Amino acid sequence: MLTIADLPNEILEIILLGVEVQSVVRVRQVCRKFNGLICNSISIQYRIELVIDGLEDGPPGGKSISDRLETLRSRRSAWTAMQPTYERVIEFQIPNAMNICPRIATRGHFAWVAWANDSEQAHLHILQVPSVYRGIPEKEWVIEGGVGNGDGVSFASAECVAIEPDEDLLVVVENRDGDFTPVLRSLTTGQYHPEAIESELPSMEGVEYDVVVVDVFQQYACVLFNGFWGDIKQVHLYNWKTGEILLYMEYMPAGFAFVSEQYFLIAHSNRDDVRMTLSVFDLRTFPRDDAIFMSKPSDVAIVATAQLHLPIYKGEAMQIIASSPHPRKHHANVPFYVGDNQVFVIRATLEDDQTLTLVVPWSTIQRGIRKCQEERKQSLEWGEWGPKGYSPIPEPKPELQSLPKGMSPFLRPDMTAKHLYNFERMQTLVHLARKSVTNMGVAGQKMTIGDDYIIVDQWQNQSEDGIAQSRHYHILSF
Predict the structure, then answer these.
(1) Which of 229-243, 274-288, 394-408, 425-439 tops mean pLDDT?
(2) Which end of the chain, N or C, is less packed with Cβ atoms under 10 Å?
């Protein structure tokens, strides 16, 4: 009797290319024939190594499978050895160390606000970070700052900035004597965005804040306001194209993240409960003619599609950091893309000042949403939706709030410990990057990781009173 092992290798290869990579790895252990076939097949090896690096195959044409595999391996070796194919140092002076100096990162772009020479005016610099291995060219342009309240944007008074290259969108939250106003512009020209009905979104007036966070995704823009003493927190979710406020949440929010065209997440605590919660909202269900207002836990429970409780209790503060959603537009003839494997880092500071970190992949949250829908439940305890046996871990070094983009390829699943991910590869990567660029006498340092780059942000006080400050961005690309 013929068995599957008797089939020609060409047929077996086609079959193995159509099953999950985890199954292919197990098939290697069946017999020597299967092991040899898998090890010697360039197409199968390419598919396995794409999964290992968190990548997906690019469009047909251009490089052959053999060339793509060689490029993939060269890229991995360069990352591991911290041998970038592109290096650049951006240096500028900040006239007053108290001035805000926003930096913005997406998976493929980096932008920063810098002051012009001998001027109090600030400009926005945008860089499309090049990648030799993926064939992405370098592009850079500058949007000059204006005076605000007019055609120009006042980057000098910007509390925070966000960009969405897919939508050619620039959002600048200007501080106008205490009133925070989100201003909309074209990312490429700095002019009014042609798809926005209004050039500004409704402002937040009359309340003092010390932290403002903004992010954008497709037609949505979200702003998080934190009060000086943490007693006032608000989230405003807008449709920036229409200028409408879709959702308004006060007091409880600690962080938010866009996931897809359908789902939006808010991490928050509950006044009447010590648990931290991740609430999931279906953007498709939001009314178009009236904003949703939420000021207490029962309001959130009514609106949320699912509420997933976290194994974190008695938190004084919490934030959610997400790798960017998968871009809709790709560069032509790129051999491979970074896959749609979002991860969410949830950090909580407890009453004893201990910081706990929980890394949750989007696939786990999706399972929680499906379970709520199938079982007709509004909320789930961690034991009902989280992986069994996993728990938060103390804050790893370097701190993950410095690594907001493109993290997932550098986090490895850890099935032996009681947490979801092993941070060893990321820690090694960041250590090598810091070691390669560190200057003596720096006052501070942060990191950013994208799809093809790592950026070390260093600053140094230039005077004893700390008024003048020098800033360096060390860009390493692969």
Answers:
(1) 274-288
(2) N
Is pLDDT at 45 greater than 80 in this prediction?
A: yes
Token pair listed for 272: 């009447």
Span 372-393, pLDDT tens digits: 999 999 999 988 998 776 667 7
Q: Which residue type occupies 362?
A: W
* Of 38, 154, 34, 61, nearest in space to 100 by CA: 154
| Residues facing residue 403 across a β-bridge | none
Bridge partners (DSSP) listed for residue 280: 265, 306
* Cβ atoms 382, 310 nearer than 8 A: yes
Q: Residue 294 has what pLDDT?
A: 84
Residues 172-189: b if buried by 16+ CB within 10 A, e if exposed: bbbbeeeebbbbbbbbee
Residue partners of 445: CB distance under 8 A and separation at least 6: 434, 438, 456, 457, 458, 459
For residues 266 and 281, the answer to whether their CB atoms sit within 8 Å is: yes
Summarize the confidence of residues 256-280 as an average pLDDT: 81
> Within the chain, how many helices (H) and strands (E) appear?
9, 29
The model's pLDDT over 281-309, given as tens digits with 9 standing for 90+, comes to: 999 888 877 888 888 878 888 899 999 98
CB 449 within 8 A of CB 410: yes
